[in-house]
Input
Amino acid sequence: MSSVGERIRSRRLELGWTQEHLAESAHLSKGFLSDLETGKRNVSADYLLEIAQALGVSLDFLMKGDSSQPKSVEVQIPAALSDFAKQEGLTFAQTLMLLDMRGQIVAHRSNTKSDDLEKFDWKRFYEAVKGFLK
Amino acid sequence: MTVLSVDPKIISMANSLRLDGADAVRSIMDYCKKRIARTLRHAVSVRTIDDLERLICTELNLVIHEVRTDEDVAELSKRYIAEGEAVFAALDMELDADSYGVLYQRRQAHGRGPTRYIAVVDCRGEKAARRFFTRWHEIAYRLTTFQQFELPFHRTTISGIEKDPIEKLMDMIAGEVGFFDPLFRPVLETEIQASGRLSFEVVENVRIRYCPDASFQSTVNACAARLDAPVILLEAGMGLKKREFRELHDLQMALIPLPKPKACLRVLSSIPNEAARDVSLRIHKNMRVPETSIVYKVFNADSETTAAASEALETLATWTSSDGGHLPEVMVHIQAQKRNDRVLAIVAPVDNRAN
Output
């Protein structure tokens, strides 16, 4: 189970922030933050609240973490992709690659596209990228 | 609290960002504004919205490309494929006729590298008019996306008639941060002081001074939202009663031969700003526009007359609903202008004391 310091560090890195940046945002010294992240020092509730606000997370998360977060990621292949892969004779690795590539599309600004992977046009997508599937 | 705040998708987004879900929209908006404020603390000089955009994009490891021709799409696609991002081979497919932009997360870039995220904004043809807002829309997505949530998190858009709640929220964020208050408000206030009230001319002046690349529509929305005085932005066009619309699209009713309902001039959208909501100034969506209103006259005038905006003082009591009710007796100033097949109107109470 990760410690408060580890969770602070992990969230800081998610945001791409340096220790200086977080220290300034949370009104702490860099040295104190560094000690906190490495578990060399404890932190008072007041400071923790400042850090939580700066990092945009709840106090609860910093103190307890989110135990409901899965440790490993289970990959779910949409039925539409699975059917298409079977029909096209794709290997499991190629199917995963296709899913992973689709995963690179974070968002659309569109009037018609759906985020439903079951409705995604896998055939068209595959036709466009098939030259790059190993 | 808005209806959007209780939408499960929005609450889920607030939770995924580990924010308070009690008023999810407010929490997410505040979160985005705080992120920008923190970035600004380290900025040397941010005088224009372009300066701000550059700064935010750097902070978010985001690069925005605009494509203006099919050749641009092919060129960009080729470039990123060469850098190992095969997903760009389908770029052309992603930017179909109804898509304005797409945001990618690169695999072949360092986790926090400066080009980790690539947004491609389609500026081909008429889409160019929305380029400014689309850029900020993509930034809004990026502001609310974090590494650990990205894999299962493909946000998209409109399904059928009703717009996706996430898209609505992204539009709200784009409207808030793209028209960044410390930069936008001084321009708006100067123009309002000079003119006395919000008008199409004021909006156009603000647009030119603040960001000539912004569309008139996004600017008028931002002006109205920031105004301390009550105002409603109204859009009118030909439409049916809700019941008529339902019946027309009801398969069972299609079996019964009935005369086709006749469309008439109705309120297609009506957006009161906060000050208008505070004084309960509202015009309901789908209301019939009275023939005595300037909105009706502008809609039916010939094209030469409608090139400029027309204005009038009138009472809202003449606006009636199909159940026989009418709006309160409030004198309003209406400025209306025809845009394609619709009329856009700015409605403001004369004494600012609507009730």
Remarks:
- Residues 67-73 of chain A have pLDDT under 50 and may be disordered.
- The radius of gyration of chain A is 22 Å.
- The beta strands of chain A are 105-110.
- The CA atoms of residues 32 and 41 of chain A lie 8 Å apart.
